[in-house]
Amino acid sequence: MKSIAISGSPRENVGKRDAKELRYEGKVPAVLYGGKEQIHFAVDAPALKGLVYTSEVNFAELNIDGKKYNAIMQDIQFHPLTEKILHIDFLQLFDDKKVTIEIPVKLTGTSPGVKMGGKLVQKLRKLRVNALPKNMPQEVEVSIEPLEVGKSVRVRDLKPTDYSITNVPEDTIVSVIMSRALKQAEQQAAQAAKK
């Protein structure tokens, strides 16, 4: 998984007034937790673009006052009107400790059911993956090669080796359903056969 370098400076004061001042200066108040103690720091807002405004999930390599921490964005708060980042929480990662993250699903291949006129419906766009940081995939690939009309791929059908998926095994990821045009064609064929 990709890692984005972000530099931050420690915050002396923690509170609403201090957070407002930081935002006025173009910085975002942040906190890193999951280690021995919480670390409150501030980050320049433009430095977060590559981490926040993307469909990918990336690790953050935080440099706070000369110390480096590996982390993942855990929570983010936006202003309801301006969409500016108000606050961001990071979870510290450790090489020997598993973490659960929502990872995007990437569909691969071509479905024979779609070629026959079926409609591809993707129900899950992200899956909850539990793994060590070094084994965390950038995306979960799901092959739609075997999908005929009326068939689907469920979470239980995936057999990853380096990580586990914590979604309900019965959840449908993607399916091929009969399209309206295909239904009409079948109905017309059935009516023609009756005559």
Automatic annotation (TrEMBL):
<dbReference type="InterPro" id="IPR020057">
    <property type="entry name" value="Ribosomal_bL25_b-dom"/>
</dbReference>
<dbReference type="GO" id="GO:0006412">
    <property type="term" value="P:translation"/>
</dbReference>
<keyword id="KW-0687">Ribonucleoprotein</keyword>
<dbReference type="InterPro" id="IPR001021">
    <property type="entry name" value="Ribosomal_bL25_long"/>
</dbReference>
<keyword id="KW-0699">rRNA-binding</keyword>
<dbReference type="InterPro" id="IPR011035">
    <property type="entry name" value="Ribosomal_bL25/Gln-tRNA_synth"/>
</dbReference>
<dbReference type="InterPro" id="IPR020056">
    <property type="entry name" value="Rbsml_bL25/Gln-tRNA_synth_N"/>
</dbReference>
<keyword id="KW-0689">Ribosomal protein</keyword>
<dbReference type="GO" id="GO:0003735">
    <property type="term" value="F:structural constituent of ribosome"/>
</dbReference>
<feature type="domain" description="Large ribosomal subunit protein bL25 beta">
    <location>
        <begin position="98"/>
        <end position="179"/>
    </location>
</feature>
<keyword id="KW-0694">RNA-binding</keyword>
<dbReference type="InterPro" id="IPR020930">
    <property type="entry name" value="Ribosomal_uL5_bac-type"/>
</dbReference>
<dbReference type="InterPro" id="IPR029751">
    <property type="entry name" value="Ribosomal_L25_dom"/>
</dbReference>
<comment type="subunit">
    <text>Part of the 50S ribosomal subunit; part of the 5S rRNA/L5/L18/L25 subcomplex. Contacts the 5S rRNA. Binds to the 5S rRNA independently of L5 and L18.</text>
</comment>
<dbReference type="Pfam" id="PF14693">
    <property type="entry name" value="Ribosomal_TL5_C"/>
</dbReference>
<dbReference type="InterPro" id="IPR037121">
    <property type="entry name" value="Ribosomal_bL25_C"/>
</dbReference>
<comment type="function">
    <text>This is one of the proteins that binds to the 5S RNA in the ribosome where it forms part of the central protuberance.</text>
</comment>
<protein>
    <recommendedName>
        <fullName>Large ribosomal subunit protein bL25</fullName>
    </recommendedName>
</protein>
<dbReference type="GO" id="GO:0008097">
    <property type="term" value="F:5S rRNA binding"/>
</dbReference>
<dbReference type="Pfam" id="PF01386">
    <property type="entry name" value="Ribosomal_L25p"/>
</dbReference>
<comment type="similarity">
    <text>Belongs to the bacterial ribosomal protein bL25 family. CTC subfamily.</text>
</comment>
<dbReference type="GO" id="GO:0022625">
    <property type="term" value="C:cytosolic large ribosomal subunit"/>
</dbReference>
<feature type="domain" description="Large ribosomal subunit protein bL25 L25">
    <location>
        <begin position="7"/>
        <end position="90"/>
    </location>
</feature>
